[in-house]
Write a structure and sequence with these properties.
The protein has twelve helices and 16 strands. By secondary structure, it is of the alpha/beta class. It is globular. It starts with 10 loop residues before the first strand and ends in an 18-residue tail after the last strand.
């Protein structure tokens, strides 16, 4: 139950705490009053009812720019056998082949969206596995869900295939996939890893994107192998080709285990190329440096997170997002951006650091993905998340399960969907 029931209609919420960077003020936290009228933030009006909020923290509704709605919630029927990255890949491949019908994908995606909405998310980009014949199935269901969820959660999709499936000399299957992406108003994506033809494949990728006016989103260097450095090649090819649509790179884990000088040279190229970076700290903490198959008693030596502080220092647009949810790549999670913020702060030591990291969960992903910018200024939609916390330590010490979520000026019912709804899908062989 929410910590407070707010009156319907126009009202002034008095004495809220907000990250100062979100209202353009210096320092860490600030105090504000917010007036809500007709579904929007409005100018102050002394004639309206006033609710004293006792310094409760307020955020604009969140943006989760890297998820996998199509994989979500398959864990009960497709758990990772050893917690490893390879275990995740093989398990998902088998489950996709056996079970990912339109009805299956649709039910799990809708379940995940209801969870995200209840937690206070207003925009999501999801990657969709696009290994034939899955692309037509998943994109078909996504387009229908995008229409059904319009006005509640803005949705984008990015295709997910692998760099080695791009023929650098003719369109082939990847050209057909790029056409589907364009037809559905989506984003062109793939996973990069070392390949003898990677630079030619990347040139072909960007040619497909440029010819269709598409944004790009890569899964990049999701490994603890320091020799893997495709991020540098992506930046170099963007600079070489002059590709000028937004390019997002996710994960970038190997940077953290490369020699310092080498990693920083790569970041200088990333900054020069104008790439957007999204870090996925919870999933990377779960998978990276796990060696259960060969040494089950070994403790992991690193956190899996990429060099977000060094990126921010170079002006690189850095975001954080949920990634996977209850699937072989991450056994946990619920598309809750308060959880992502809390865990990113702990894992990446965002505390005792710069005071503007709140942008990485709001403004930065909006910029990277092209969603409407979050705002608390008059005229902005009254889409808010309010927590019974007066400081960062109070916010992060508890899960904020009694938060208030306001959409279009109205406090919503935050009842989460019951996992039992998906039981009929978990009986699959």
């Amino acid at each position: 139950m929410d910590f407070r029931t707010l009156p319907q209609g126009a009202v002034t919420l008095k004495g809220l705490t907000v990250p100062a960077c979100l209202i353009g003020e210096p320092g860490d936290l600030a105090q504000i009053d917010l007036t809500i009228r007709d579904g929007k933030i409005a100018a102050p009006d002394p004639t309206l009812p006033v609710v004293e909020m006792n310094r409760a923290m307020v955020f604009p509704a969140f943006i989760d720019m890297h998820t996998h709605l199509d994989k979500g919630h398959i864990w009960p029927r497709a758990s990772n056998p050893d917690g490893s990255f390879m275990g995740a890949l093989t398990t998902v491949d088998a489950d996709r082949t056996a079970n990912w019908s339109g009805a299956d994908v649709r039910a799990r995606m809708d379940f995940a969206l209801r969870s995200a909405y209840a937690h206070g998310t207003r925009a999501i980009r999801t990657h969709l596995d696009a290994i034939p014949p899955q692309a037509e199935i998943s994109f078909g269901e996504f387009v229908k869900l995008r229409e059904e969820w319009a006005g509640r959660i803005d949705l984008q999709a990015a295709c997910l295939t692998t760099i080695d499936l791009i023929d650098p000399y003719n369109g082939g299957d990847f050209g057909a996939l790029a056409d589907l992406v364009a037809q559905t108003g989506s984003v062109l994506g793939c996973v990069t890893f070392p390949d003898a033809q990677i630079r030619d494949r990347l040139r072909a990728f960007f040619a497909h994107a440029a010819n269709r006016g598409l944004h790009a989103d890569f899964h990049t260097d999701e490994t603890g192998d320091a020799s893997v450095a495709t991020l540098r090649e992506i930046a170099e090819i963007v600079l070489e080709t002059g590709f000028d649509a937004p390019v997002t790179v996710g994960h970038c884990c190997s940077l953290a285990v490369q020699p310092e000088a080498e990693a920083l040279r790569t970041l200088d190229l990333v900054a020069k190329a104008g790439l957007h970076v999204v870090s996925l700290p919870m999933c990377n903490l779960y998978l990276q440096d796990r060696v259960a198959q060969t040494a089950p008693a070994r403790t992991p030596r690193w956190r899996g997170v990429t060099l977000v502080h060094e990126m921010a220092a170079r002006g690189i647009n850095v975001s954080f997002a949920s990634d996977n949810t209850r699937d072989p790549f991450y056994a946990y999670g619920d598309l809750d951006m308060i959880e992502v913020m809390r865990e990113a702060t702990r894992i990446a030591h965002l505390d005792h650091s710069r005071s503007d990291w709140s942008h990485a969960f709001l403004t930065n992903p909006a910029k990277a993905a092209g969603f409407a910018a979050p705002s608390l200024a008059p005229g902005a939609p009254a889409d808010l998340v309010i927590c019974r916390a007066r400081s960062w330590t109070e916010l992060f010490a508890r899960p904020q399960s009694d938060r208030i979520v306001i959409r279009d000026g109205r406090q919503i019912d935050r009842t989460l969907p019951d996992y039992a709804e998906l039981d009929h899908l978990m009986d699959c062989p």
